């Protein structure tokens, strides 16, 4: 299997995952026969992802091997699927080729003019903004994303993939599993480099590879590590005073839940919060302009941008409290998320559920430093216990260790071990005018948790 023309009938093991469901929908959209299974598909239990996949004509099965037979041409597995899974064993016995999700994405990327969006933060948002600009400009792009775009969710779909008639495909290039080095895009975009899953020197190696594989490479020069990988500053962008680049954002203002700024003196206004979103919009407008879309058209498109799922999603306003749900999960993202809420109200109460014992241990110092740096005297950080997805992990760290470290730095930090009791503990801290910000990733029940908090607020 070297190109997407080498197979017709494909089966996904773990099809409900965001990365997998996006590829399944994309293949269906280009005329392949697609089916898949997931451990979350249980008989008689409603499953929203399953319903939406079936509505697209994608067959859904329980993870028992019943969906795979000798007519299956290709089986796709996510990184989390082990060799011992029934379906992997069955595929091997039938000699069906098995490839990883990232290998399939690389194959798809080769079949189109691809823009690969890389960096440790902002990939999903920037991809969505770029897709919206290209779509608004009539280029009919395709997208494969790690998060649902509200504009596509409105069509009753999962929202993380769309097949357009045009030449361009926007994808997220993930550095966390190293798969980014498999893509050979027409345009590679590097947003930033922060310690996340890996140490900085490892990340710089990965991103250097990404640069070498890209026909044209565009970087964010406001970010010193990304700037080191610049290949032509005329195509780069930045938002710092006296930096040199072809595209420069200035005049940032945030009023409540809206931001405004200029790019090369063209005014932009968006219904979003945070300086990081100006940076994402700047990246998207830069790439669109390189493809021939003028900046005024980009500004018009982004004025209508509706955001992506669980990225600073405003759940609502009740009893003087703004409830906002966000996917922030590494130190830089958590700090940016808290900062983005500060212009909305004089007090921000942020809650964070770290995921994985290994990552939390690895990033402990960075979480403590970054979160403490942005908290104002009246702001608070709360954490509940680390989310554990199963597998072998040494549970020798608690979210409470991070809270104690932050408290030692003189900040308001609190631990509510069980998140279901969060509101009970936190209620006396709410004021007539504050933001309650919920942060976390990797835990599929976080969305329900946000709605539970809203109901009980």
Brief summary of the model shown:
The protein is α/β, with parallel strands linked by helices and 457 residues long. The protein has helices at 18-29, 48-55, 86-93, 101-110, 123-136, 150-153, 200-213, 224-227, 275-290, 295-303, 331-341, 357-374, 399-408, 422-426, 446-456; strands at 9-13, 33-37, 59-61, 74-77, 98-100, 113-118, 142-144, 161-162, 168-172, 187-190, 216-219, 237-238, 247-255, 258-263, 266-270, 313-318, 321-326, 347-353, 380-383, 412-415, 434-440.
Report the uncertain regions.
none
Structural class: alpha/beta
CATH topology of the largest domain: UDP-N-acetylmuramoyl-L-alanine:D-glutamate ligase
Biggest β-sheet: strands ordered side by side in the sheet:
8-7-9-6-10-11
Instruction: Report on the biggest sheet.
Output: 6 strands, mixed
Helix content: 25-40%
**Helix segment tally:** 15
Total beta strands: 21
Measured by DSSP, the beta-strand proportion falls in 15-25%
The CATH superfamily title of the largest domain: Mur-like, catalytic domain
Instruction: Tell me which CATH architecture of the largest domain applies here.
Output: 3-Layer(aba) Sandwich
How many angstroms separate the termini?
53 Å
CATH class of the largest domain: Alpha Beta
Number of domains: 3
Mean of pLDDT = 93
Q: Supply Rg.
A: 22 Å
**Large-scale geometry:** globular
